[in-house]
């Protein structure tokens, strides 16, 4: 029986022309970019699946909202409109805008690191979060369930915390040494996998038991709420916004990159439930780091567009199509035998490159090799989520071996059609069928922090 996928709940009003290059051109272009897709020029990319961060198409209502932006340095009307929306969605008392998620992280995370030897615990820290934890003088520990690493077996909430690991970590490290617990929803590095409401509730109860602050990394909270509605008993008849509100009730703080489920090209924020002292510390610290507390690195027009986008992202018809687009690409790859994280996640399809290229060691970055190969094949840009992204141990400086070597095919919101995804699928399938030709990579230049963004590589046989 033919699978059904939701049609686009919008029609296209403005288009952007994209250039197609030849395979010969792409070979030269990739070499000049140091075999790092981050260093490719956008104009040399046909279908850009590098990230869903800041790459959404905005609605006509958002474009209209831009025109009423108030660019006052202090006390902007746009700030108060955005604050009202965030408080409505979260039921939190305090709100501070930031230029994006990492701006919120760099302001907030150091506030809970009060001494040396502290830790943040997450289901899985994403790259910028892990880096800001380390820059704050703490260490990052991941406590995701083991099912996360079984890529082929179905589990409805592979992003969940392992509660036993979590409690053991708290007891081993000492509750006084845990700066905070970060619930990443959806769990990006786990393959865009959702976290169940029951798991969030249990994590919250454990945090309260030990007196630990609980933080939600909510970049994709609306997608997580949709999965809860689909998969968790008792939520089928609830509105998405009410599911989101319940999730936020299990945390003390929300850090959000609004470039994802805010449907804007730039923006983020810190929301704090009811801790006035913590709010005042962040409000003070944001001034030198981001800007005055009523703009925090954002233009007034961007705050107004975000106020609209946050509500649009909670629309169930939009979310159904959003999840179906990702599922469509994942289904095409699975049907061709390409190993991917299953079930398909919320914002991306994660391809298991450890299985595709077992002949490439982890420290020669098999997922980066596959990522480069699909660019050469079809001009598709993706991103590695594996040992390259994890980086080096901050104490030993040894390469950290990732449990999973994944290539993330990240779908921008409201940008591409199903036919574009067919082009992506055909390219990945071709590379999979010629996987024995893939070669590992070695560093020519390795940055000390967030190395995957700006590193330069060479294929092993050309060194």
From TrEMBL:
<comment type="similarity">
    <text>Belongs to the beta-eliminating lyase family.</text>
</comment>
<dbReference type="InterPro" id="IPR011166">
    <property type="entry name" value="Beta-eliminating_lyase"/>
</dbReference>
<feature type="modified residue" description="N6-(pyridoxal phosphate)lysine">
    <location>
        <position position="260"/>
    </location>
</feature>
<dbReference type="Pfam" id="PF01212">
    <property type="entry name" value="Beta_elim_lyase"/>
</dbReference>
<comment type="subunit">
    <text>Homotetramer.</text>
</comment>
<dbReference type="GO" id="GO:0009034">
    <property type="term" value="F:tryptophanase activity"/>
</dbReference>
<keyword id="KW-0823">Tryptophan catabolism</keyword>
<keyword id="KW-0663">Pyridoxal phosphate</keyword>
<dbReference type="InterPro" id="IPR013440">
    <property type="entry name" value="TNase"/>
</dbReference>
<feature type="domain" description="Aromatic amino acid beta-eliminating lyase/threonine aldolase">
    <location>
        <begin position="48"/>
        <end position="426"/>
    </location>
</feature>
<keyword id="KW-0456">Lyase</keyword>
<dbReference type="InterPro" id="IPR015422">
    <property type="entry name" value="PyrdxlP-dep_Trfase_small"/>
</dbReference>
<dbReference type="InterPro" id="IPR001597">
    <property type="entry name" value="ArAA_b-elim_lyase/Thr_aldolase"/>
</dbReference>
<comment type="pathway">
    <text>Amino-acid degradation; L-tryptophan degradation via pyruvate pathway; indole and pyruvate from L-tryptophan: step 1/1.</text>
</comment>
<dbReference type="InterPro" id="IPR015421">
    <property type="entry name" value="PyrdxlP-dep_Trfase_major"/>
</dbReference>
<protein>
    <recommendedName>
        <fullName>Tryptophanase</fullName>
        <ecNumber>4.1.99.1</ecNumber>
    </recommendedName>
</protein>
<dbReference type="InterPro" id="IPR015424">
    <property type="entry name" value="PyrdxlP-dep_Trfase"/>
</dbReference>
<dbReference type="InterPro" id="IPR018176">
    <property type="entry name" value="Tryptophanase_CS"/>
</dbReference>
């Amino acid at each position: 029986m033919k699978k059904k996928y939701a049609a686009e709940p919008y029609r296209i009003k403005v288009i952007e022309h994209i250039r197609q290059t030849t395979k010969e051109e792409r070979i030269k272009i990739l070499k000049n970019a140091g075999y790092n897709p981050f260093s490719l020029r956008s104009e040399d990319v046909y279908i850009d699946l590098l990230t869903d961060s800041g790459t959404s198409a905005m609605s006509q209502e958002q474009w209209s909202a831009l025109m009423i932006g108030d660019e006052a340095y202090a006390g902007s009307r746009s700030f108060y409109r955005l604050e009202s929306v965030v408080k409505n969605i979260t039921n939190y008392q305090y709100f501070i805008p930031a230029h994006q998620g990492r701006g919120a992280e760099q302001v907030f995370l150091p506030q809970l690191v009060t001494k040396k030897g502290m830790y943040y615990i997450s289901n899985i820290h994403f790259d910028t979060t892990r880096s800001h934890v380390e820059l704050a003088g703490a260490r990052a520990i991941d406590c995701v369930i083991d099912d996360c690493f079984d890529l082929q077996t179905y589990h409805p909430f592979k992003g969940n915390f392992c509660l036993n690991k979590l409690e053991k970590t708290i007891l081993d490290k000492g509750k006084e040494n845990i700066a905070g617990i970060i619930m990443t929803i959806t769990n990006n590095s786990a393959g865009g996998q959702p976290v169940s409401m029951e798991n969030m509730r249990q994590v919250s109860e454990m945090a309260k038991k030990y007196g630990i602050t609980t933080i939600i990394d909510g970049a994709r909270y609306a997608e997580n709420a949709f999965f809860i509605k689909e998969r968790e008993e008792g939520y089928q008849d609830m509105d998405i916004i009410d599911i989101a509100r319940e999730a936020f009730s299990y945390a003390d703080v929300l850090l959000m990159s609004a470039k994802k489920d805010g449907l804007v090209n730039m923006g983020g924020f810190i929301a704090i439930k009811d801790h006035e002292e913590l709010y005042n510390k962040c409000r003070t610290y944001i001034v030198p780091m981001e800007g005055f507390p009523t703009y925090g690195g954002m233009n007034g027009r961007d705050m107004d567009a975000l106020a609209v986008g946050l509500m649009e992202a909670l629309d169930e018809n939009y979310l159904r199509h959003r999840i179906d687009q990702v599922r469509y690409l994942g289904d095409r790859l699975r049907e061709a035998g390409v190993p991917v994280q299953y079930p398909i996640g919320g914002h991306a399809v994660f391809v298991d490159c450890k299985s595709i290229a077992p002949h490439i060691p982890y420290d020669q970055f098999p997922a980066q090799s596959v990522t480069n190969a699909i660019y050469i094949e079809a001009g598709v840009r993706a991103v590695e989520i594996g040992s390259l992204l994890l980086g080096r141990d901050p104490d030993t400086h040894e390469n950290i071996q990732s449990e999973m070597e994944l290539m993330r095919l990240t779908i921008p919101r409201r940008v591409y059609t199903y036919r574009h995804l067919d082009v992506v699928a055909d390219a990945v399938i071709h590379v999979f069928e010629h996987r024995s030709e893939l070669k590992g990579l070695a560093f020519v230049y390795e940055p000390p922090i967030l190395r995957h963004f700006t590193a330069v590589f060479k294929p092993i046989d050309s060194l």
